Amino acid sequence: MGGLAKGLRVIETFTAERPRQSISEVSAACGMDRATVRRCLLTLAQEGYADYDGKFFTLTPRVLRLGTACLATMPLPQIVQPMLDALSEAIGESSSVSILDGDEIVYVARAAQRRVMSIALMPGSRLPAFCTSMGRVLLAARPEAEVRALLESTPLPARTPKTLTDPGAILAELARVKAQGYAVIDEEVELGLRSLAVPLVSARGRTIAALNVGLAASRMEAGALAGHFLPALQEVQARLKGLLPG
Amino acid sequence: MGGLAKGLRVIETFTAERPRQSISEVSAACGMDRATVRRCLLTLAQEGYADYDGKFFTLTPRVLRLGTACLATMPLPQIVQPMLDALSEAIGESSSVSILDGDEIVYVARAAQRRVMSIALMPGSRLPAFCTSMGRVLLAARPEAEVRALLESTPLPARTPKTLTDPGAILAELARVKAQGYAVIDEEVELGLRSLAVPLVSARGRTIAALNVGLAASRMEAGALAGHFLPALQEVQARLKGLLPG
DNA sequence: CCCCATCTGTGCGCATATCGAACAAAATTA
DNA sequence: TAATTTTGTTCGATATGCGCACAGATGGGG
Predict the structure, then answer these.
(1) What pTM was computed for the model?
(2) Domain match, B211 and B193 both
(3) Is B33 among the domain residues?
């Protein structure tokens, strides 16, 4: 069903940098014929997913329904949000839950205590998996061959001077993460930011998601993170063990 | 481009109550032929938007990208999030920004201080416009004829005993909201919850979004809301006046 | 246990919607 | 103003999706 696939690719070309696009811009962005793109956009407009002023197209909030439909797919956010709120309150720092989607982690729930990252994180936000604490924990649960292939087919930009960018080094770190059951990130994703993550596993032992705490580097040394926060994270981890699907 | 429209309708059939659906279930839910639904779902699976275990389909986090693409459409979240954080911190209560989509409001940014509603609100969450403070403010900015048509073509369920459900009464309230520049909701959307909202208007005077504060009813009388929080909300309102598009 | 009733998933021919080259209109440059 | 590039739209050949009809699964009742 080509038309559907095309239309979805069209929707994904709209980004923060390109919120208003002409037919030709979209055509260039997704490498489809202008006529094809035109049909897609006109359909989207007719169905209420886009606005058209005769020159430029814009997505409407209706598109958010699609994302919501997906979030609704997983009971995860509803289950973990209360625990996340309690956890954040108890430790006085921000915590989040995310899942793996390819080479990215996707935030599905979050309890923000203080703004700690320069960008606003919210459900649906994405960050690269290879350099985040939750990403490390989620990757560590996958077969090594799969992760190696992933790391070698994905650009691994150094987001800070501390970011690990060598696939071998990352794989070694993943092995340690797997062995110890948690991951610590020390300013690899953003300077001034440290975080600690544990996997959330189902009763059957499958890693479903990851839970983390993030805080300003000024608040604590990297070496002290596990000692301070691991018990609280593991308590949530244990309570969720029976509740998670799969 | 029929296939695209069909596919989007298929995605929207997935809800919290029906996260895993067979072909026939989806077919029944959106009134399309089973064969058509099947093609849609197989395409979605092939493109990575759905998973298929041979019997049931599930949406994948990839679908969230679509919603994110839409949020990216509006600079609004990025602009307001920092102000929202500061506002929440200053007044010690939760605040949110939402926009109007048909008869619903859609949250685009939120700073939660305390859990105040029984359901978790997050960007993308939807609530009916007619009984929420932000909805009232957004509806009050639309032409009365349009709002009347909307109210008469939409079910107006009483979410609590206090919910206004008579279109005439709501229109009268909207007129008052428009005149005074803010809306107060006293347990109309959920028992134990009160809120205060102001419109966010662009430099050209167009109402783009709404900003609100929500708190437990036990914390303050309805009559005292405006006196306590209006100055803070209006300060944000004023600072955003020049920054909003449109 | 078997049969019938019902529901679900899937191949196939026909009709229709989609593709993309070719055309027209507009914007840009000289 | 005319040449040139870029963008939007049209239209016929053709591939694509539509939905009927069939097969397989399911499950209740005799």
Answers:
(1) 0.88
(2) yes
(3) yes
